[in-house]
Amino acid sequence: MDKLRALQYFAVAAEERSLSAAARRLGVSTPAVAKLVTSLERNLGTTLVNRTARGLALTADGERYLENCRPALAQLAAADDLIGASAARPRGAVVVGTTPVFGQHCLLPALAEFHARYPDLQVEIRTVYQLGDAAASTVDVFVLQSWPQGVDLVQRSMAQGRFVVCASPAYWALHGSPVHPKDLERHPCFLYRTFGGTVLDLWRFERNGHEEAVAVSGWLVTDQRETMLDAAIAGEGVARLLDLTSQAALRSGRLVPVLLDWEAKEAPRFDLLFRPAQRRTPRIRLVIDLITGIFRKLEAEREDGVAQPPSARPRWVGRGYRRTSSAGARGRE
Questions:
Q1: CA 193-157-76 angle, 5° bins
Q2: At which of 88, 113, 146 does a domain end?
C-alpha cells in the first residue's frame, strides 16, 4: 500500500464526504479511492469512515486520525509548492471562505485577470460567515466581517466597514428622502439577522458628538446581505449596507445614499485570516496578495478617500439578544 497516497485520498474523501466526489477532485476512479481508504483502515486496524447511502461520515477514530495528520499534509503541500515554484508555474487549488456578497461583488470581478496570470491555479469560493462554520475546516484563506478576536490564525485587518443607508432613486422619489435618522421610522427598512440569530433593528448614528439610536422596522428580515441589496435596488425599501460591497450599485446610481452628514455606527471590519504554516506556500501567498490588492483598490475608490477608524465592538455581540433594540434598551437602564 502507498500509505502517503492513501492518506491523501482519505483526507480528500473526508473533506468531500463522498468517495465519488473525492475521485473527481483527484482525477482518479472511485474504486481507486475506495481501495486505498480501505487499505489504510486495514493497516491501522480501525474504521475511519462510515459509508452510507447519503455519503461518508468520519468515525471518532477517523476524526482524531485526520486532525493529527493535517499538519503533515500541509507541510508536504508547502514543500511541493516551494520546489515546484522554482521549476514551473504556480499550480493547485486554494479555497477562499467568505460571505456571498463579498465573493460576488469584490472577489469575483478580480478573478478573470488573476486566472489569466496564473492559469494553473484553481480558486474555490465557499460560503463562510464565521470560523466555526462547518465549511471552515478546509478553507485556506478567510475574508470575514467581524470585530477583533483571539484566534489561532494570522489575522490582518484589511479595512473598516462603513454602513450606508440607501434606496433606489425611484423609492426616494416616491416616499421622500430622510433628513434626520428619526425619519427612518416611517420607512420600511430591511433588517439583517446575524449568524448568531440577532436581528439588527436598532441603527445608531453620530454627528458632531451627538448620537441618535433609531428602532427601525420593515417587512423583510434576512441573513443574506445580497438579498437586501437586490431588494433595495428593486425599490422595495431602505437598506443599511456596507459601502465596500455595494460600491458598484452606488457608483452606477442604482442606489442613492442618504444621511451622509451622519456616521452610521457599529459597522464590522473586514479581516483576512490564514494559518501561520501556509504563509510561505506560493499559491496561497498569491491569493493573499490578490485579496490585499482588492482591498487597496476598494479603499482608493471610496468617495472621501479617508480611512475609517476602527469600530468599537457593539454591546450586543455574543450576548444572545434576539434584537439589537433589546440591547439598546438595556443599555439605557
A1: 100
A2: 88
The radius of gyration of the chain's CA atoms, rounded to the nearest angstrom, is 23
Question: What is the residue whose three cell numbers read 434576512?
Answer: 222
Cα→Cα distances 14→47, 70, 72, 139, 310, Å? 13, 12, 16, 14, 39
Cα distances (Å, whole numbers) of residue 182 to 118, 201, 203, 214, 215: 51, 13, 10, 6, 9
Cell numbers standing for residue 85: 515554484
pLDDT band at 332 (very low <50, low <70, confident <90, very high): very low
The secondary structure of residue 137, as a DSSP letter, is G
Which of the 8 DSSP states describes residue 307? P
pLDDT at 207: 92
Residue 185 and residue 251 in one domain: yes
What span, in angstroms and rounded, lies between the C-alpha atoms of 227 and 251? Answer: 19
Residue 258 and residue 166 in contact, taking contact as beta carbons nearer than 8 Å:
yes
Q: What is the number of structural domains in the chain? A: 3
Report the distance separating Cα 333 and Cα 13, nearest Å.
54
Domain for residue 308, yes or no?
no
Rounded Cα–Cα distance for residues 143 and 128 (Å): 9
Task: Check whether residue 190 and residue 326 sit in a common domain.
Answer: yes
Same domain for 1 and 80:
yes
For residue 319, the enclosing domain spans 163-267+315-331
- Given a contact cutoff of 8 angstroms between Cβ atoms, the answer to whether 218 and 199 are in contact is no
> Quick check: 326 pLDDT over 80?
no
Q: Among all chains, which residue has been given the C-alpha cell 439578544?
A: 321
